[in-house]
Design goal:
- The protein is mostly helical and 276 residues long.
- A hairpin with a 6-residue loop joins strand 1 and strand 2.
- Helix 2 packs parallel to helix 10 and helix 3 runs parallel beside helix 6.
- The protein is globular.
- It comes from Ligilactobacillus apodemi DSM 16634 = JCM 16172.
């Protein structure tokens, strides 16, 4: 299986890869919180474009993220459809006006509702690229040290690092098993029907989960034998000092967060209302 198709850390020499893991984690958390709390379309659009631009700067391959992006888009669309079905008049109530675009009784489409749904969709474009960027450009050990640096127990930090390291291994094992099954005549590609592919996926995933649990038990036993967790603190081989660039990243995150606070005051709330 080509490594470009595996969702996991891929070492490269890019600007994003060289940023300190703690600075990247801080930026991701602060900007995500800012985007989740505001509904100012101008701010969300700026962050969405900025996130996509950062994603391109990291020189990441589409093959690495295509599956997860399609998966997120699918469930995002389901979420938007569900929001509209359960309360198609929410946008009109929210923006205190109603411009009907399509009259269809309960499912009447208004400009306000579409505007609200567009804001919800923008939130995905703001946070998903940042999350993928952080996961794909941050070494798991550096990520663990960054978690420990912000006060999280090193035991939990190390568990997260192991999980991130194990995700590519699981993906590789799945694709290897899938290729072996197809070599034996069990069609699991796009040529097969959806039900056949789902059945084949289940037949691979279930034993893969049990084998993974066995490997986890082996790793935990090995760590106990090496007295992991016997001390209250530990040092990190991959921990890096902050540079000027890292401080600039932290400062940018703070500025974006303060911008949302200013917009709260400007808009008299979380929502930007262009219909007034």
């Amino acid at each position: 299986m080509n490594n470009q198709n595996i969702l996991g850390y891929q070492p490269q020499d890019s600007f994003i890869h060289r940023i300190n893991a703690s600075a990247k984690l801080f930026f991701f958390l602060v900007v995500s919180i800012a985007c989740m709390t505001t509904f100012d379309t101008r701010f969300l659009l700026f962050v969405a474009l900025f996130s996509v631009a950062l994603f391109k700067t990291a020189h990441l391959k589409w093959q690495q993220v295509s599956f997860i992006v399609k998966f997120i888009i699918f469930f995002s669309l389901l979420n938007l459809i569900a929001v509209f079905i359960f309360q198609p008049t929410y946008g009109a109530q929210l923006y205190h006006s109603k411009d009907v675009l399509l009259s269809a009784g309960y499912f009447t489409v208004t400009a306000q509702e579409l505007f609200y749904l567009a804001n919800v969709a923008l939130k995905y474009f703001c946070t998903v690229p940042l999350a993928l960027l952080f996961l794909l450009t941050t070494d798991p050990s550096s990520f663990a040290s960054s978690l420990n640096k912000i006060g999280i127990s090193y035991k939990i930090s190390y568990a997260v690092a192991l999980a991130l390291r194990y995700i590519p291994d699981i993906q590789t094992a799945y694709w290897n098993i899938s290729a072996a099954q197809q070599a034996r005549g069990n069609e699991l590609s796009k040529k097969a029907s959806l039900m056949t592919r789902l059945k084949g996926m289940v037949n691979i995933i279930v034993p893969l989960i049990f084998s993974s649990l066995e490997r986890i038990n082996t790793i935990s036993t090995a760590m106990q034998l090496r007295r992991f967790g016997s001390k209250k603190k530990r040092t990190w081989y991959t921990q890096q000092p902050f540079t000027k660039t890292d401080f600039c990243v932290v400062a940018l995150a703070i500025c974006l967060f303060l911008t949302t606070l200013y917009l709260f005051k400007l808009n008299h709330g979380r929502f930007y209302n262009p219909f007034n």
